[in-house]
Amino acid sequence: MPKTDSSRGTAPEVPRTRVLVVGGGYVGMYTALRLQQKLKPELRSGRTEIVVVTPDPYMTYQPFLPEAAAGSISPRHVVVPLRRVLGRCRVIVGEVKSVDHSKRTATFTTLATEEEGTGAVEITYDELVLAPGSVSRTLPVPGLADHGIGFKTVEEAIGLRNHVIEQLDIASSTRDPAIRDAALTFVFVGGGYAGVEALGELEDMARYAAGYYHNVTADDLKWILVEASDRILPEVGEEMGRYTVSELRRRNIDVRLRTRLESCEDRVAVLDDGSRFPTRTVVWTAGVKPHPVLAATDLPRNERGRLKCTAQLAVDGAPHAWGAGDAAAVPDITAGEEGKECAPNAQHAVRQARVLGDNIAASLRGEPLTDYAHEYAGSVASLGLHKGVAHVYGRRLKGYPAWFMHRVYHLSRVPTVNRKARVLSEWILSGLFKREIVSLGSLERPRAEFELAAGGNPPGSPPSHPPRDPKGST
User: How far is 208 from 431, CA to CA, in rounded Å?
Assistant: First the structure.
């Protein structure tokens, strides 16, 4: 029991160490989870506090986004509620705006900030974990901001699914050949994991859905993949990359290598090879960049804007600051090559988080730290139902075996037994029953019907009070 002050009869205030975790993605959630496990006595006694500030109250398991878009998994099963998993942490739904590590302070806004009118909130900390992840890397392509669709969040994945099905409805009901052609043309920009897997899964879903339309066939659909380099899926190796191109082209998907999107103004995708495609769907998956909050800190960054970190996942030259994942440039000590960094992918992020949690706990207790060392095991990618490619431990797989390995691997990696069981049950049910091909696009504007009934704006017109988006902005 703590000693009491006999003169006042109260217990003296116990010094508390606050660990501030910025971000609730792979690194943020797994680091906080690891700290919960390693610092149980300190958390129980109140000597340590873990605060997680994140824009969303959940962690999104992004490898499952393509299957969520295709309807193989329910959206709620690709996210992990942070408050349930991080029961010993204080979770704040907000967005960090700046960090002053010299003063050990960070400022952030919450959903209530605008209502209160008090401005950003300041929080002090003793240890900082900066893991805000990354954002989509866009280029100044004319029309992209107006017509482009991202594929990084669960909201975007489900919105894209609804959008694709709605295009089939438009094509089925219009009498204008130009509108029909634009509705059935789908352009994906970016040949990495996100672009190829999203294209493969959605093409598979749309091909199946077309069978339920009396005047739309799978052959009417036009799918185009645009990639600036000379290969796609570089993570699975050159041979598997070539196989993926062949497999996609066998499905009548137009794969354009060494090609860039120049414009998508007026719903026309213009490529630098002179091709023009009237389209209502341009999906942008051409890479990511570090989160903008990194530029609003006084921490050292490299030329790409990522935190300069040591092999122990500490920010180089900034004591008590830590980083991992997409936001951090972590040296790959297993590569045997000077200056080599770990790839910013989920495979490294999850493993880095475990080491990061251990090192923070060790630092607080004055124990030695551990270097992060993990040899890249390989990659797996899904190209649709029962189709995939894999390059794991030097072995190359394609078709059904690769697809099966993709599912097994990610099922083993998705957090919590609860989510594993729910995902597995949905896969089993989807194998026994047919796909669901219903568009719920009206969810994006749930008040439309009531506004019309109340004499407001009719559906399809801009609402008088735009609904708040999932991030809390208007």
Answer: 14
